[in-house]
Amino acid sequence: MPQSKSTLNTMTTEFPDYLKINRDALVKGTAVKLSVVKDMSEIAQHMATAMFKAIKVAEQNGHPATLIVPVGPVDQYPILADMLNQNQYSIRDVMLINMDEYLTDDDQWVDISHPLSFRGYMNRKFYDLLNPELSPLPENRICPDPNNVGAIQQLIDQRGGVDACFGGIGINGHIAFNEPPEPGHMIPTEEFLQLPTRNLNLTRETRTINSVTVGGEISIIPWRAVTIGMKEILAAKEQHFYCNRIWQSSVIRRVLQGPITGDCPASLLRTHSDVSLTVAEYVADLPDIRLR
Q: Which Enzyme Commission number(s) are on file for it (predicted)?
């Protein structure tokens, strides 16, 4: 498969070796299943189809699905709603656990009417689009509660585990809002793997890249969030992750071929036995690192 035009062939040893890995070798030596699709719209279609499949497989196995789901990527939700409506497929008893939510400075959910609220987004772009008789029961639309972070694990235990986790990967390798430790604050990998649902500060990197989607105004991105933990995510039976942004070209190389460490939380997916990663072609291509 041809490589993209890139300046990586002129790289010096100042750059990590994993940045030189072409798409054919991205998952070499790992158990990760890689799919490369054309663009952002195909990512959304692929993700919606995979979510629908996970829901149906759980039902075939005799129980309603329990899924951990993101707001980011986001475009899959209207597609999934249309699939469910077209098939008249009820997900009344399916439990959807959102990965995270922004918090106010006093560690309360931002209001659901806040333009950046993940709960509000799920309502507008998924739940409100479903035929009411097909929609999950209100008690099955879950967001981690900053005032009762232990409730997520209790719910998961009551449901017999999570059938599948879906998500994206942040510019610093975070999954959900499991941020890497700040410089000078080491967390052993074994300890990072066991981090539970919790409230935390967002890193500057996360706030900066998230501001890109709202016009570049970093001041409106909250500092605090609640997130599902690495412990709950990695206990899910299946992992399905998606990358649709051009800046993810470098981070997926670090995730797949760099050290397995909490310094790049998504690299810990490689400790799981059933992981799929779906990326756009421009993410699979070698990063073009140069001034231009």
A: 3.5.99.6
The β-bridge relationship of strands 100-103 and 224-227 is antiparallel
Q: For residue 245, how far is the Cα from the chain centroid?
A: 13
pLDDT, tens only, 58-75: 999 999 999 999 999 999
SS3 for 106?
coil
Which regions of the chain are under pLDDT 70? 1-13
Q: Does domain 19-284 have CATH number 3.40.50.1360?
A: yes
What tens digit of pLDDT does each residue of 246-279 get? 999 999 999 999 999 999 999 999 999 999 999 9
Distance CA 244, CA 44 (A): 9
Integer angstrom CA distances of residue 24 from 34, 68, 144, 257: 10, 30, 38, 12
d(CA 246, CA 1): 19
The domains of the chain are located at: 19-284
